[in-house]
Design brief:
With 158 residues, the chain is α+β, with helices and mostly antiparallel strands. The protein has helices spanning 13-30, 44-52, 106-120, 135-143, and strands at 3-7, 56-63, 66-78, 87-97, 125-128.
Length: 158
């Protein structure tokens, strides 16, 4: 099984939709108070705008002609002020490996690719958000060397 990582392209949209749905459906399941059911959680127009934005990067994992994983990233600059230092961060906005291809090293290959990419564009850090309920994702991120930076907390009033 040879896994290749490459830049996403416009023609990948239909093949990526099931992966985008997989991520979105999980979020709807865990937090139906926040996320709406939607069979097209990423509109084609939005996807295409990400592809042409030089601060956003979509990388896909393929095995042969099959698209088996995706990672969506976005560069952001933190401006220095009296409180924080200037820095450049690469955020992982979404990461998904097809359910049928999990536990085969594809997620690790995708994230290592992102880490190498981050080094090449000289970011200070690579960060992501993960819901507390997604224990398998948290375990995966820890296994590749990521640590918890902060935690968001809430009290639901309505």
């Amino acid at each position: 099984m040879q896994v290749f990582i490459r830049n996403g392209k416009q023609s990948d949209y239909e093949s990526l939709l099931p992966l985008f749905r997989q991520v979105h459906d999980y979020h709807v399941f865990v937090r139906p108070d926040v996320y709406k059911e939607n069979s097209t959680p990423v509109e084609q127009e939005f996807f295409e705008s990400q592809l042409i934005d030089n601060k956003q990067h979509i990388f896909v994992a393929t095995i042969g002609d099959d698209l088996v994983g995706v990672v969506v990233t976005k560069e952001e600059e933190v401006t220095e002020n009296t409180f924080v230092k200037a820095r450049k961060v690469l955020y992982i906005k979404s990461l998904c490996v097809a359910e049928t291809h999990r536990k085969k090293g594809i997620g690790k290959k995708l994230t290592n690719y992102v880490f190498d990419f981050g080094r090449s564009i000289e970011v200070n850090s690579i960060e992501l958000g993960v819901t507390e309920e997604n224990t398998s994702a948290i375990e995966f991120y820890r296994s590749i060397g990521m640590t918890t930076k902060s935690r968001k907390m809430e009290i639901i009033l309505k």
